[in-house]
Amino acid sequence: MIDTAALLIWFDLNERPLPWRNKTTSAWGILISEVMSQQTPVARVAPQWQEWIERWPTPADFAKASKAEVLRAWGKLGYPRRALRLHECAQAIVKRHDGAVPSDVDELLALPGIGAYTARAVACFHFQQNVPVVDTNVRRVCGRAVTGQFLQPQPSAKELGQVAEVTTGPRCSAAFMELGALVCTAKSPKCDICPIRRTCQWQKLGCPQPSEEDLSKAKKRVQKFTGTDRQVRGLLMDVLRAADDPVEKSQLDVVWPDAAQRSRALFSLVEDGLAVQTDAGKFHLPQ
Ligand code: SF4
């Protein structure tokens, strides 16, 4: 059994002072922080989150913003579809729940853009429900500490039950997440300072190293950025966000040398509703 008492003591001493880790943070604040933190490091999220919560303190405030305002405020957090989904989510909260973020996991899951992780994180971290919250950090810590596997297989329904068994409450869930972010990291876990080392199954098994084949599979799952369509989309979005008026295609053409890739990226932005083409062939953010 994992030594959760030691984990909680460690968390009391090492918890990072993230701006949303505050007793007064609303459910909406927690929801935004969780959406922003997916696939984006918290150090980049923190200042942006602060700005958002001051500008749009409630779902109703955010629902009234235009898509262009939302995308400009999202800035360079990446994966900007998250911003549009968050906007739809706020509108649904206003319509279905009178502007109050629901506490029920199923009601949260029914909101646009809210997946299993976010729904449970809001229920757990704001509404203090003891529901399992599984992100990549928790998956990694539990995989190593409970089943002794250094690398984790793809997410499965089984892991929710496994995490529910080892977490003793909302603070324990947050502690597992923090341990994965700071100590039990993907490539080089700092086992010598780990509070649950004594009960960790991977340690008990003698720290078996993954095979070359498994390492290479895991490496392939890590998404590259440089040279990808995602990078080109980001560069095109930079131009659109900075412009007050629709831009000529020639202003977009200068951001990337490969015409085929640039055109594919631009088309995908239009398809995703992140860019709009005018009848005159210019481009702008959606309104
Ligand atoms: S002892 Fe090492 S592998 Fe086990 S949970 Fe701690 S950091 Fe992870």
Automatic annotation (TrEMBL):
Task: Give the source species.
Answer: Corynebacterium casei LMG S-19264
Which PROSITE patterns does the annotation name? Answer: ENDONUCLEASE_III_1 (PS00764)
Domain named HhH-GPD: residues: 36-182
Q: What protein family does this chain belong to?
A: Belongs to the Nth/MutY family.
What is the protein name for this chain?
Answer: Adenine DNA glycosylase
* Record keywords, A-Z: 4Fe-4S, DNA damage, DNA repair, Glycosidase, Hydrolase, Iron, Iron-sulfur, Metal-binding
What EC number(s) has UniProt assigned to this enzyme?
3.2.2.31
InterPro entries recorded: DNA_glycosylase, Endonuclease3_FeS-loop_motif, Endouclease-III_FeS-bd_BS, HhH-GPD_domain, HhH_base_excis_C, HhH_motif, MIG/MutY
Which reaction equation describes what this protein catalyses?
Hydrolyzes free adenine bases from 7,8-dihydro-8-oxoguanine:adenine mismatched double-stranded DNA, leaving an apurinic site
